[in-house]
Design brief:
Layout lengths: L1 E5 L4 H10 L13 E4 L2 E6 L4 H6 L4 E5 H7 L4 E5 L5 E8 L13 E4 L2 H10 L5 E4 L6 H4 L5 E6 L3 H5 L2 E10 L1 E5 L1 H6 L1 H17 L2
Parallel strand pairs: 1-3, 1-4, 7-8, 7-9
Antiparallel strand pairs: 2-3, 4-11, 5-11, 6-9, 6-10
């Protein structure tokens, strides 16, 4: 069975929950990207790529619901996992706050162009979405955007950059993803894994 896990903030929680479900995976060393663990294979990827890998053939993955929604990948999501909790929010400079309804023509910087467009379209507001990959909070400070849409955990990064949360777009948590074909061809194995993880969540351990 092949697993793909996201580098970064969800990695330790992902390894931990799999370990408690009886699957011990060693992470790749020395810049390797794939490592064999007995009958398992582990691939580490950028969080935004995890749903794409699962859609196109990797058996099981873990990714944030923000990434799964943004990508719109065709994967099975049998479980929400009890870590990676945060939210996707709209934020603006503290000294330049307006109501969302007044944001027509605003420029919004984000790693989540699809979710951002959907959010504003629902409200009937036209904005220009600027896709960035790095530190989104910089965009309003250097004047290339009026507001940002980004992940908020503690709110400390926003505060440090003189930004204030205006509206929550969605709650975010880690999700277990399963490839649709693997779910059929490796049904027993996949099912057993899902049940074990369910048990781990239920026992809160």
């Amino acid at each position: 069975m092949r697993f793909v896990l996201p580098k970064g903030r969800l990695l330790s929680g992902s390894l931990e929950i799999l370990k408690k479900a009886g699957i011990r995976l060693e992470t790749p060393k020395n810049r390797e990207l794939i490592v064999k663990n007995g009958g398992y294979e582990l691939l580490l990827a950028r969080s935004f790529d995890v749903p794409v890998y699962v859609e196109h053939g990797i058996d099981v993955g873990i990714a944030g619901s923000d990434v799964v929604e943004e990508r719109g990948s065709d994967v099975l999501v049998p479980l929400e996992l009890p870590f990676g909790k945060c939210r996707l929010s709209l934020a603006m400079p503290k000294d330049n706050v307006v109501d969302v309804e007044e944001m027509d023509g605003f420029r919004i910087a984000t790693k989540y162009p699809n979710l951002t467009k959907r959010f504003f379209e629902k409200k009937g507001i036209e904005v220009e979405v600027i896709k960035l990959h790095g530190s989104i909070e910089l965009a309003p400070r250097i004047g290339i955007a009026d507001a940002i849409v980004d992940i908020v955990e503690t709110g400390n990064t926003l505060k440090a950059n003189n930004l204030i949360e205006i509206e929550k777009i969605m709650d975010v948590s880690a999700l277990l993803l399963v490839n649709r074909i693997s779910q059929k061809t490796k049904f027993e194995e996949v099912n057993k894994l899902v049940l074990k993880i369910k048990e781990v969540i239920k026992n809160g351990s």
